[in-house]
Amino acid sequence: MVFDMVFDRIAVVGAGAWGCALANVIARAGRTVLLATRDRAGAELIVSRRESPRLPGLRLDERIGIAPLSAEVGRYDAILLAVPSQHLRDAARVIAPELAPGTPVIACAKGIERGTHAFMTEVIADSARAALPAILSGPSFAADVARGLPAAVTLAARDETTAAALARALGSAVLRPYHSSDVRGVEIGGAAKNVLAIAAGIVAGRGLGASAAAALVTRGFAELFRFGRAFGARPETLTGLSGLGDLILTCSSGQSRNYSFGIALGKGDPALAGGKLAEGIFTAPVLLEMANEKGIEMPIAAAVVAILAGRASVDEAIDTLMTRPFRAEG
């Protein structure tokens, strides 16, 4: 527990699009912000240009300090880890030696770790034992947030009082965090929706029409909901911003890397995705493994995994889904 609940000095680890967007909006809310890059060359480049290579034309607020990631970053009041899910463990280990007990460390990645099947807050807890793990997730694109366009997200920590204090510290007139203590529900929504967004993109890329797209998102949400409930998520979280809200956004916009990757798959040319990281590629097989272990039916996720693994073509996967036995909706 953080006793004074004052988070004036915030560090953001990761200078990609999302990290820079978060640093900008938090600095403009009046906090002292350090943007910690994962390499020294990246820090020097951003210092000289005052913009992220991932967000060209959008300048970083002059009040943001920029430095390479080091253990000293752990001395800040709260730390946001805005790095890809499969690299979050390494980032947490770097800051661990200087963390004061109970310092909030907030995962901003949407995924599940390969091999361990660990959710992001579990990775933090295992890698930085002094941390108070938290998760920030919801329907938000980096470019929108960086430009100061309005967005609402969910910030969850096991302790509701801490979650509320963090929401006040990070929030502003353009970024509204709703607080929650349902950490697992927020994590599951963010991870599962990326896999389903790939499926939605495939439907769009294949030109299957708006009716198919609506059916895919609806049945995909049913899968997300079943998975979430099996792992202890609250229904109101799954139907909220970090669940249904994020799913709707990610399955409907070309700004989504996962949706764009799915479109490229549907068109038969993954290179069309432009080489951008799609977290759903790594999450899909892990999500399915975890679902199978609990006997949770997730046919859309299974189809995505089969396509990614080369075990089925797009058309074969679609045929498999459309020829499943008829059943009651649920």
The backbone outline, from C-alpha atoms, is globular
Q: Give me the count of strands.
A: 8
Q: What topology, given as strand order, has the largest sheet?
A: 3-2-1-4-5-6-7-8
Main sheet summary = 8 strands, mixed
Structural key phrases:
single chain; 330 residues; alpha/beta; 14 helices; 8 strands; 47% helix; 13% strand; globular
Q: What does this 3D model show about the protein?
A:
- The protein has 330 residues and is α/β, with parallel strands linked by helices.
- The chain is 47% helix and 13% strand.
- It has 14 helices and eight strands.
- The protein has helices at residues 17-28, 40-49, 88-95, 120-127, 142-146, 160-170, 183-205, 210-230, 235-238, 241-250, 257-266, 279-293, 299-308, 314-322, and strands spanning 9-13, 32-37, 65-68, 78-81, 104-107, 132-137, 151-157, 175-180.
- It has an eight-stranded mixed sheet, with helices on both faces.
- α3 runs parallel beside α4.
- The chain is globular and about 55 Å long.
- 52% of the residues are buried.
- The model has no long low-confidence stretch (mean pLDDT 93).
Summarize the structure.
The chain is 47% helix and 13% strand. It has helices spanning 17-28, 40-49, 88-95, 120-127, 142-146, 160-170, 183-205, 210-230, 235-238, 241-250, 257-266, 279-293, 299-308, 314-322; strands at 9-13, 32-37, 65-68, 78-81, 104-107, 132-137, 151-157, 175-180.
